[in-house]
Design a protein that fits this description.
This protein is of the alpha/beta class. It has two domains: about 100 residues, no CATH class; about 170 residues, Alpha-Beta Complex (Phosphoenolpyruvate Carboxykinase, domain 3), CATH 3.90.228.20. Helix 1 crosses helix 3. It starts with 15 loop residues before the first strand and ends with a helix.
């Protein structure tokens, strides 16, 4: 991914990519200029949006198409609040991008609009790796350095790692919570441009694990108030950078919404403390939580 537009790059004035989310929305990204077209092209690659997803009859009947129209302004663009959605369309103006870090920040802003819409509908973007076991998704959450990526890389089959840092939780029309793998945009800051995540590979959410490094492997449920508090914390971590420049009223409204969503999620999805050792089989502890859960929701 280049932060500058190559001379040979011939972007169309309008490009459209589609992203299907388990909350029933199908997002279209439209470029209003050549620089925006380059951003959308990079977004497609990182989120694997170009991979066509077959829509079921239920999808076709219930899907709601929303559009994000991207425009790159000539000067710095500050967001004092999240852009407002009008008639299922969001106009997104972003600042110029001249470095990989600035490019990653613009991509993060665009993708945040999708996450924000899902949060309005009861979802939550959280700082946590997404792993899968026999059709169920598990989020390994916690602050940077706690071992999310390392833990997800140690998993044996049939476990699968879907994302290593960020996950979008969404509430589907039928009342289930689903989890979408989400890009690790911070990788792009260090010019690691090869990362991509199959964002449309959503799985039903079965468990959220708050990690801590210990000498032995152990898992136990968190009290509801603590679960809510830690969910709010890991959701706030995904928004800390983007929150810079936002008004106090906008931040207060966002924080209240996340608190309400975290409360609803904690009442329906088990949240546990997962203590992991350097060499133990921590996934066995997770499976003990998931076995009864798997047969109750599938």
């Amino acid at each position: 991914m280049s932060a500058r537009i190559p001379k040979h790059h011939k972007a169309k004035q309008k490009t459209t990519a589609e992203l299907k989310i388990a909350d029933g929305c199908v997002w279209q990204f439209c470029a209003e200029d050549e620089k925006a077209a380059l951003l959308i092209e990079q977004l497609e690659q990182a989120m694997q949006i170009s991979r066509r997803v077959e829509l079921t009859k239920a999808d076709i009947k219930n899907k709601k198409i929303k559009k994000i129209s991207v425009q790159v302004g000539p000067q710095e663009v500050k967001w004092t609040a999240m852009p407002i959605e009008r008639a299922d369309k969001i106009s997104c103006r972003v600042s110029p991008f001249t470095t990989p870090k600035k490019t990653a920040f613009r991509l993060m802003r665009i993708s945040q609009l999708v996450a924000h819409s899902s949060e309005i509908n009861g979802g939550l973007l959280v700082h946590g790796a997404l792993i899968q076991w026999k059709g169920l998704g598990v989020i390994l959450a916690g602050p940077g350095g706690v071992g999310k990526t390392t833990a997800s890389q140690r998993l044996p089959r049939p476990w699968r790692s879907l994302s290593d840092d960020t996950t979008l939780i969404v509430l589907s029309p039928d009342g289930f919570y689903w989890a979408h793998p989400w890009p690790t945009w911070s990788r792009f800051w260090q010019e690691d441009m090869d990362g991509s995540w199959d964002v449309q590979a959503a799985v039903k959410l079965g468990l959220i694990c708050m990690l801590s490094q210990e000498k032995r492997d152990r898992a136990f449920p968190l009290p509801i108030r603590q679960a809510i508090s830690e969910l709010v914390d890991i959701s706030g971590q995904t928004f800390a950078i983007l929150a810079n420049g936002m008004s106090k009223d906008a931040l207060r409204s966002l924080n209240l919404m996340r608190f309400e969503n975290a409360t609803a999620i904690s009442k329906k999805i088990p949240v546990c403390r997962l203590e992991i050792s350097r060499t133990g089989k921590f996934w066995k502890e997770i499976e003990e939580f998931l076995i009864p859960r798997r047969y109750s929701i599938i």
